[in-house]
Specification:
The chain has 132 residues and is of the alpha+beta class. It has four helices and eight strands, in the order ααββαββββαββ. It starts with a helix and ends with a strand. The C terminus is likely disordered.
Length: 132
């Protein structure tokens, strides 16, 4: 449980150095859809970059539950954000596979892939947000 809470705290506080200590060197994170943030990234630098991009878009992450398996954990989240007329209101499950005491793979499941595809788009300059 502590690993999941530490990951979320690092994400919330932009503590990228702390987050990297929780990740294996070959960690991957896959996110469904065709949005700016979709696809698979690999390595601690890429994982922290994606987490930072989510924060840059103003995403607020609310922990609903942590679920456990023999070899991992899952973070049940409610993610919200607003930018102009766009609203993100997404139920998210991030499954974390563990190797030793580190996260080796993050797999994101979403309840509204079209919603993230509309929200996470390139070239937005609105309310102080600038996205590549």
């Amino acid at each position: 449980m502590q690993l999941g809470l530490s990951f979320l705290a690092a994400w919330k506080n932009r503590s990228w150095a702390l987050m990297k200590t929780l990740l294996s060197d070959d960690v991957t994170w896959s996110l469904p859809g065709e949005s700016l943030l979709s696809g698979e990234v690999q390595g601690p630098d890429a994982i922290t970059r994606r987490a930072g991009q989510l924060k840059d878009f103003g995403v607020q992450v609310e922990l609903r539950h942590i679920l456990f398996s023999r070899d991992g954990l899952a973070l049940a989240l409610h993610n919200t954000a607003k930018r102009g007329q766009l609203v993100l209101d997404e139920h998210v499950l991030i499954v974390c596979d563990l190797a030793g005491h580190k996260i080796s793979r993050l797999t994101t499941y979403l309840d509204d892939i079209a919603g993230i595809e509309a929200f996470f788009v390139a070239g937005i300059i609105d309310q102080g947000f600038v996205h590549i």
